[in-house]
Automatic annotation (TrEMBL):
Keywords: Activator, DNA-binding, Transcription, Transcription regulation. The keyword Ribonucleoprotein does not apply. This is HTH lysR-type domain-containing protein. GO terms for molecular function: DNA binding; DNA-binding transcription factor activity. One of its GO terms (cellular component) is protein-DNA complex. It comes from Rhodococcus opacus (Nocardia opaca). PANTHER family: HTH-TYPE TRANSCRIPTIONAL REGULATOR CYNR, TRANSCRIPTIONAL DUAL REGULATOR HCAR-RELATED. InterPro entries: LysR_HTH_N, LysR_subst-bd, WH-like_DNA-bd_sf, WH_DNA-bd_sf.
C-alpha cells in the first residue's frame, strides 16, 4: 500500500470526482483511477460507488477513509515532532535533577536559557542521585544534574560547580560557635542524613570513612529540608551543602569542616551513545557555559 495511492484515495473522497481529485494531485485521471484500483484490489472490496460522473464513498470507503485520515494526522504529528527535535529553538528538553539543586541552580539555568530559546519546553523530573541516573540510562530523560560523578559505563558526566560541604548543627550545640569542626571528633555524635541512593548520603559516607569514623546515624530522611529541620530541632548534626538561604533564628548553624576536603561537585550527565535532540544539545552547551559564571 503506497502513500501516493492513499493520497489519491483521500482526494477522491474529498472531491467526489476523479477528475477534480486528479487535478488536485497533479496527476492524470487514469493514473488516479489506477491508484484507487490498486487499493481496492489490495483490500478486496470496492471503496466507491460510481454515480454518473461523480463518485461516492460506500460503507467500506467510509471505514477506510477514517483510518487513512488518522494515519495522515499521525504522519503530520510525527513530521512536526521531528522538525522540533532538530530545531534548537523548539522542541522539548527532558531533564532530571537532584533535589538540592532545585531551589537555586535549576531555575537559574532555565531562566537564562529561555531568554534566547523561548519556544523550547521542559519536562523535568526530580529524585536522588541513583534515581536520576536511572532515568538517564533508561531513556526517560536526555540530561541529568547530579553529584557526585555516577561513574557508570556509557554515561558522560561533565563537572560544573564545586561547593563546600558543611556540618549543620543546632543553634545550642557545643559546636555552634566553633570556627571549624573535624569529622574525626564526631564518633559519638548523633547524625541525621539522607537515605542511601542520594548523592549527599554517598558523600557523607565517604567523608566519614576517610577519617575512620562510623557515624551514629539516628535518622535517614528522604529530602534535605527534613534533614535541616531535624537538625534544627536538636536530633543530631548533618553533613550538607550550604543552605541557599541566609541564616535565620531557629535554623541550623553551618560550621566549616577542616580535617578533610569536604566538598561536592555538581555535574551534568548524558548517555554518549544516544541521539540527543537539538534543543537538549543547545541546553547542554548552555549549562556548561554557565559553569564559568559565578553562582548567585
Amino acid at each position: 500500500m503506497e502513500l501516493r495511492d492513499l493520497e489519491a484515495f483521500s482526494a477522491a473522497a474529498r472531491f467526489g470526482h476523479f477528475g477534480q481529485a486528479a487535478e488536485n494531485r497533479f496527476m492524470s485521471q487514469s493514473a488516479l483511477s489506477r491508484a484507487i484500483g490498486r487499493l481496492e484490489d489490495e483490500l478486496g472490496v470496492p471503496l466507491f460507488d460510481r454515480v454518473g460522473r461523480t463518485v461516492r464513498l460506500n460503507r467500506y470507503g467510509e471505514i477506510f477513509r477514517a483510518r487513512v485520515e488518522e494515519a495522515f494526522k499521525a504522519l503530520d504529528t510525527g513530521w512536526s515532532e521531528i522538525t522540533d527535535a532538530v530545531d534548537p529553538n523548539r522542541g522539548i528538553v527532558t531533564m532530571a535533577f537532584i533535589p538540592s539543586v532545585g531551589p537555586i541552580l535549576v531555575p537559574r539555568l532555565l531562566r537564562e536559557f529561555r531568554r534566547t530559546h523561548a519556544n523550547v519546553r521542559f519536562q523535568l523530573s526530580q529524585g536522588g542521585a541513583g534515581s536520576v541516573v536511572g532515568m538517564l540510562q533508561d531513556g526517560s530523560v536526555d540530561l541529568c544534574l547530579t553529584a557526585p560523578d555516577p561513574q557508570v559505563p556509557g554515561v558522560e558526566w561533565v563537572p560544573l560547580w564545586k561547593e563546600p560541604m558543611i556540618l549543620a548543627v543546632p543553634e545550642d550545640h557545643r559546636l555552634a560557635t566553633a570556627d571549624t569542626v573535624q569529622l574525626a571528633d564526631l564518633a559519638e555524635v548523633p547524625v541525621v542524613t539522607l537515605k542511601r541512593g542520594f548523592g549527599i548520603r554517598q558523600i557523607t559516607d565517604e567523608l566519614f570513612e576517610e577519617v575512620g569514623v562510623t557515624p551514629t546515624i539516628v535518622f535517614e530522611a528522604a529530602d534535605v529540608p527534613t534533614v535541616r529541620g531535624l537538625v534544627a530541632a536538636g536530633l543530631g548534626v548533618a553533613v550538607l551543602p550550604p543552605s541557599p538561604d541566609t541564616h535565620q533564628v531557629g535554623l541550623p548553624i553551618e560550621v566549616p569542616i577542616s580535617d578533610v576536603d569536604a566538598s561536592r561537585v555538581v555535574g551534568v550527565a548524558r548517555v554518549t551513545s544516544r541521539y540527543m535532540p537539538a534543543a537538549a544539545h543547545a541546553f547542554l552547551e548552555h549549562v556548561i557555559s554557565m559553569a564559568e559564571t559565578p553562582r548567585s
